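Consider the tokenized backbone below.
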């Protein structure tokens, strides 16, 4: 089989970049929590790296990308990677080995449930988290991946999501909101973040990896790849700067943490639209992201919702408005394989995107809440008061990030 060397090489690099985002998330979240819980939240990201890979190999890839046209799930024809060999090609790009496509998509599956962990930081048992990780992959991530990217139900209705506004960020954000409401507030609220430099390191790794996340989603090397790459950087930069300015005006000082958080919000927001909109639209999307996501976090604080690391406000709201703005600003002139948005006369496409957001939001929220309720009947979801006070690093894992705690 004559594969396209440029596409294959680029996608291997993109896959590596997306893999790097999970350790990046671990550093980002690790810096945001208190000193007694650093290892716990970092481990939740790293264990997904291992555990999700195993599930993906056994049946995850098959459920997402094998058969099931117009359905909610794929079939089981490719369990244990049956039929995926050195000569099999990706259905999305005949010049790309299926091994590479499967590996790339696996990295998305790894990081998505890890995003949710920031919402219930410092208060969930490890056993409950492992059950959560398992059930959420099968109940939310796999079906939405198939429905949007596996030629399933939502794709049938013309729904587009370039790199994961629906599949990754909105579902994770709504799951985070459900988790916060179910698990409740922390008994012990540490002075956080404990290390802004660690947050900065995590942001840098996430931003760097996001080029593979977004530009790689074109699955080949062409002008759209470059468009998605630049749109990603521009949206993140505008969002970070806008967040910094708003927070400066509101809080009286320019905060580094605000700049970092705003940048991540911009990255999440541009994700669904990166390869479907123009550079000017990316500027608007980034600007709106900085404003709306900041207001969402303020609303969360006002309502006293203990979303510890602002997963809903940054990823959930970011993914949501990103999909809405995709429905507004998409242009076939940018990507002939995409659609025309509302401003180009694509009323039907805009309606489909809105419908997908409503459906994914309600489904992810309800499923996650009920799932936690059922897990709680098997094993306690929330840690005991004494364990929370002492810190989960020591009580759950017998390790400490820093001596003398």
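A designed sequence for it:
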């Amino acid at each position: 089989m004559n594969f396209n060397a440029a596409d294959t090489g680029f996608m291997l690099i993109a896959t590596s970049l997306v893999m790097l985002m999970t350790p990046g998330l671990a550093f980002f979240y690790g810096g945001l929590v208190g000193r007694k819980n650093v290892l716990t939240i970092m481990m939740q990201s790293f264990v997904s790296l291992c555990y999700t890979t195993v599930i993906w190999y056994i049946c995850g890839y098959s459920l997402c990308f094998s058969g099931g046209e117009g359905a909610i799930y794929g079939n089981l024809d490719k369990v244990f990677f049956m039929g995926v060999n050195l000569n099999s090609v990706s259905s999305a790009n005949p010049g790309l080995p299926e091994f590479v496509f499967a590996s790339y998509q696996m990295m998305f599956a790894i990081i998505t449930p890890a995003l949710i962990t920031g919402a219930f930081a410092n208060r969930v048992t490890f056993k409950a988290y492992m059950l959560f990780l398992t059930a959420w992959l099968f109940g939310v991530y796999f079906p939405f991946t198939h429905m949007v990217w596996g030629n399933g139900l939502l794709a049938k209705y013309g729904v587009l999501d370039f790199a994961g506004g629906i599949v990754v960020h909105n579902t994770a954000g709504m799951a985070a909101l459900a988790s916060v409401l179910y698990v409740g507030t922390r008994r012990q609220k540490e002075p956080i973040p404990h290390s802004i430099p660690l947050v900065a390191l995590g942001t840098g790794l996430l931003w760097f990896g996001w080029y593979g996340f977004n530009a790689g989603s074109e699955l080949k090397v062409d002008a759209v790849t470059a468009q998605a790459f630049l749109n990603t950087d521009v949206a993140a930069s505008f969002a970070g700067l806008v967040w910094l300015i708003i927070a400066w005006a509101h809080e009286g000082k320019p905060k580094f943490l605000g700049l970092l958080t705003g940048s991540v919000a911009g990255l999440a927001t541009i994700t669904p639209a990166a390869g479907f909109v123009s550079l000017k639209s990316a500027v608007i999307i980034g600007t709106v992201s900085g404003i709306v996501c900041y207001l969402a976090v303020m609303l969360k604080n006002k309502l006293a919702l203990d979303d510890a690391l602002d997963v809903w406000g940054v990823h959930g709201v970011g993914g949501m408005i990103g999909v809405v703005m995709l429905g507004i600003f998409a242009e076939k002139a940018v990507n002939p394989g995409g659609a025309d948005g509302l401003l180009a006369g694509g009323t039907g496409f805009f309606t489909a995107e809105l419908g997908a957001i409503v459906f994914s939001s309600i489904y992810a929220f309800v499923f996650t809440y009920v799932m936690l309720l059922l897990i709680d009947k098997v094993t306690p979801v929330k840690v005991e008061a004494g364990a929370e006070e002492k810190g989960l690093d020591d009580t759950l894992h017998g390790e400490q990030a820093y001596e003398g705690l």
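The first helix runs from residue 5 to 32.
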